[in-house]
Amino acid sequence: MSEALIDTTLPAPAIELRNWRQFLMLAQTLHFGRAAEQLHMTQPPLTLAIQQLERRLGTTLFERTRRSVALTPAGAALVEPVRQLLQQAAALQSRARDAAAGEAGRVRLGFVSTVGFGPLPMWLRTFRERHPGIAIELIEATGDVQLRAFERGEIDAGFMLHAPGLAPTAPVQLKRLSLGVESLVLALPDTPEWAAPKRLRPADVLAQPLVIFPRAATPSLYDAVLAFYHRQGVTPTIAQEATQMQTIVNLVSAGVGIALVPRAVTQLQRPGVVYRPLPGVLASTAPHGETSLLWPHEAAPAVTRFVECVQSLLPRAQVRR
C-alpha cells in the first residue's frame, strides 16, 4: 500500500464494532472474497472499509498483492485484542440482563469485626455459591464510618453492631434486617484470680478498669455498657479505648483492664485472655448487643440478592423499615 493512503494528520474518529468484525474476518480468511462472503457483503465495500480503518489507525494492517493477503506486524498485534473486544461486546446484552435480574454486579459490603468472628464467612460462601456472577467487596469499618460511607454512596450494605432496637440512623433512608441479639460477656486476663469462674465476684468485676470501644463507633452500645455500671451504683474507670475488638482483646491480654464484648468475639482466642459470663446478679442485667444488616431503600438488584441470601440463612428474620 502506498504511503499516500495513510494520512496521520487526520483525527481518529470512533471505530465501530462492524469495522472490527470486518478486520477480524479478513485476518482469519486472508482473502477479500471469502471474507466478504462470510460478512454477507460484496468485496468492494469490504476493501473500502479496510482502507478507511487503516487510515483511521494511521498504519497498514494487511499487505496486498495480486495473489495474496497477509497481516502486517501491526495487524497481527491487533487480532487477539479485537477478538476479545468482540467477545466482550457480544456478552454485554446478557450481562445487562443478569445485572437487571440481580445475577451480576458488585456489592460493596461494610462490616464490623464482630460479624467476621461469627457467621459472615458462611454467609459469603453461600452467597458466592448461589450468585457467582456478583462480586463482594469487603470493607471493615465501625458503624460511624459506615454511616458516612452510606451518605457518600461508597458502600451498598453494611453489618453494624448496636444496642437492641437502637439501630444507627443515617441521612439516607436505610432498611434493616436484624440478625440477632446476644449478651455481652467478660474478656478477662488469664490470671489465677480470674481463671476460675467460681472466684468471680460482682464487686471485684465492677472495680476493674475497663477497656472499651469509643462512643463514636457505636453510641448506643457504649451507653448501654455505662448504664449497666450505673445501675450497680458504679462509675467505671476507662483504662483505654480501642476501635477494633481484636485490639480490645489484646489490651485485656496485656493486663490493661477487662472488657465487655459480644459473645461472637469468644471465637477470637488469644493467649492470656479468658471469656466468662457476668457473675451472680450481674448476669440478669447484662448489656446486650444487636447486629443488623442495613442497606438503602433504593438498592441495586445485586444488593437485594445479597440481603435475600442472608435472610434465608436466618431462623427467624424480619426486615424493619
Which SSEs are present, and which pair or pack?
Blueprint: H1 17-29, H2 32-38, H3 43-57, E1 62-64, E2 69-71, H4 73-100, E3 105-111, H5 113-117, H6 120-130, E4 134-140, H7 143-152, E5 157-162, E6 174-189, H8 192-195, H9 202-207, E7 210-212, H10 219-231, E8 238-241, H11 245-253, E9 259-262, E10 273-276, E11 288-296, H12 301-312, E12 319-320
Helix pairs in contact: 1-2, 1-4
Structural features:
two-stranded antiparallel ribbon; 41% helix; 12 helices; eight-stranded mixed sheet; D-Maltodextrin-Binding Protein, domain 2; 321 residues; Arc Repressor Mutant, subunit A
What does this molecule look like?
The chain is an alpha/beta fold and about 325 residues long. It folds into 3 domains: about 5-100, Arc Repressor Mutant, subunit A (Orthogonal Bundle), CATH 1.10.10; about 105-180 and about 290-320, D-Maltodextrin-Binding Protein, domain 2 (3-Layer(aba) Sandwich); about 185-285, Periplasmic binding protein-like II (D-Maltodextrin-Binding Protein, domain 2, 3-Layer(aba) Sandwich), CATH 3.40.190. It contains 12 helices and 12 strands. The chain has helices spanning about 15-30, 30-40, 45-55, 75-100, 115, 120-130, 145-150, 190-195, 200-205, 220-230, 245-255, 300-310; strands spanning about 60-65, 70, 105-110, 135-140, 155-160, 175-190, 210, 240, 260, 275, 290-295, 320. Strands 3, 4, 5, 6, 9, 10, 11 and 12 form an 8-stranded mixed β-sheet that branches. Strands 1-2 form a two-stranded antiparallel ribbon. Strands 7-8 form a two-stranded parallel ribbon. Helix 1 crosses helix 4 (about 75-100). The longest helix has 28 residues, at about 75-100. The protein is elongated, with a radius of gyration of 32 Å. The relative contact order is 0.14. Residues about 315-320 have low confidence and may be disordered.
